[in-house]
Amino acid sequence: MRTEEIVVVGAGQAGGEAVAALRMAGFEGGVTLVGDEPHLPYSRPPLSKDFLLGDVGTEVLLLRPPHFYEKHRVRTLLGRTVTKLDRDRRTITLDDGGSLTYGTLILATGGHARRLRDPMAEAAPNVHYVRTIADIERLRPELVPGARLAVIGGGYVGLEIAAVGRKLGLEVTVVEAAPRLLARVAGPDISAFVHRVHTEEGVDIRLGTTVTGFVPGDNGRVTAAVLADGTTVGADVVVVGIGLVPRDQLAADAGLDVADGIVVDEFCRTGDEAIYAIGDCTRHPCAEHGGMRRLESVQNASEQARVAAAAITDDPRAYAAVPWFWSDQYDLKLRSVGIAADYDQTVVRGSLDEGRSAAVFYLKAGRVRAAEVVSSPRDFGAAKKLVAHRAEVAPERLADLGTPLKDLLTSR
Amino acid sequence: MPRIVFVQPDGSTQEIEARTGESVMTTATSHLVPGIIGDCGGGLTCATCHVYVDKDWIDVVGRREGPEDEMLEMTSEESNEYSRLCCQIVVDSSVDGLVLTVPASQE
């Protein structure tokens, strides 16, 4: 086992899990965790839900309490940005001029919210993004009852913000460039289901149009978004959720292979034997469909952290976990497993046209390859197994709410 | 501080000082208890913090119910009437001495 210093760049979900996984695996050498936010590793999913609502405090978000890092000898350098990676000297340079030498480097740099290319919006105090605790602390005071909230982007983040907005009594409009909500992360059936629920909850949804500019108001604020279809959306506050850009520049500048994400193999190794990369910032092999993919998810970050730690501690095991994702909106618990990219049949379980619970399964050659489950923990638990086993099922039984899904597992 | 005992499948034990107010999952992951993963951070989504509560303690911490009960139907190691997802057990003085057995796998 290597005993020289391991430096982890990035103190998010992936970086936080990596230091824990290294210690869990028995690594005894030095571990340093560098993060550009002033916080110990914390959980981001609540940012757009309970944390925005003010229901939980910062300390509840932490993946592990401060005493963990002391007890397990993890040196933390927070509020520090890495400005340079020198692979020949195995050294990283920090923004305060300091430097660190590593034996092994783990890049867990995550991503940043994709920005609007609009100078007025960039400078406006009432235009917001959702990625960090600081983003939410800036946004929260603006979400006051009766205010008009314009959400740009109808993905998970945008729709979670829309749901919080309605809960807090704001007038909410969602603008999405694609012809349907959740176009990047869900199938058309679930998009329609979610669209219906948001409409029932009073959200004004504008599809297939983009924001072309903003109407300026006092003090640099914007007062409306101007859409490509010629209409405007009045707004007291704007939240932009149009995706994530992987932070791969440090790796690219150091000559590592980068292609919309740092390219790694199934052991999270880059082309440099001393450097691993994990989490949202990576492009990695897709065990489900072949080729390479990039995932923005907690589970992927944690799994890659464990895979990298295992490889570093001489117990390599290839990344093979089936990806899953979640989003909470109103009373909806949206859960998906697998990637609905390559299928020849969809099976709906329950009703998409009414109510608040349903599921959609994606099959190829009669085998379950992916599933989206709304508000049924029981069916989601079973769906994970069906997808993991690529279970061969009779579609009519899958669709039948009277048939427990676990029966389909045992009758394989 | 309340003390919680984690028993591994091989019979080895770890006794840990937990912090009042945190979940038992956080207690476990903060002390690197093997076999407690908790990927979803306590959101009743991943079911990777499954534990078997010692039968003398089950009425103190309460039994599985609701969404947690549903999630426990599909754990990698078969759940039973003493199974809980430990993200749903909050540490307070009543759990001082709590004994939990960690299953052989979580996924």
TrEMBL record, chain A:
Protein name per Swiss-Prot or TrEMBL: FAD-dependent oxidoreductase
Cofactor names: FAD
PANTHER family recorded: APOPTOSIS-INDUCING FACTOR 1 (PTHR43557), RIESKE DOMAIN-CONTAINING PROTEIN-RELATED (PTHR43557:SF2)
Species, as recorded: Streptomyces mexicanus
Stretches assigned to the Reductase C-terminal domain: 324-409
Segment forming the signal sequence: none
Keywords: FAD, Flavoprotein, Oxidoreductase
A GO CC term assigned to this protein in UniProt: cytoplasm
Residue stretches making up the FAD/NAD(P)-binding domain: 5-305
Gene Ontology molecular function: any one: oxidoreductase activity, acting on NAD(P)H
Flavoprotein among keywords: yes
Keyword match Flavoprotein: yes
A Pfam family it matches: Pyr_redox_2
InterPro entries in alphabetical order: FAD-oxidoreductase/Apoptosis, FAD/NAD-bd_sf, FAD/NAD-binding_dom, FAD/NAD-linked_Rdtase_dimer_sf, Reductase_C
Superkingdom, natural source: Bacteria
Automatic annotation (TrEMBL), chain B:
Keyword Iron: yes
CDD domains: fer2
Cellular component GO terms, alphabetical: cytosol
Domain of life of the organism encoding this protein: Bacteria
Residue ranges constituting the 2Fe-2S ferredoxin-type domain according to the UniProt record: 2-106
GO biological process, one term: P450-containing electron transport chain
Pfam families: Fer2
Keyword Metal-binding: yes
Protein name, entry field: 2Fe-2S iron-sulfur cluster binding domain-containing protein
Natural source organism: Streptomyces mexicanus
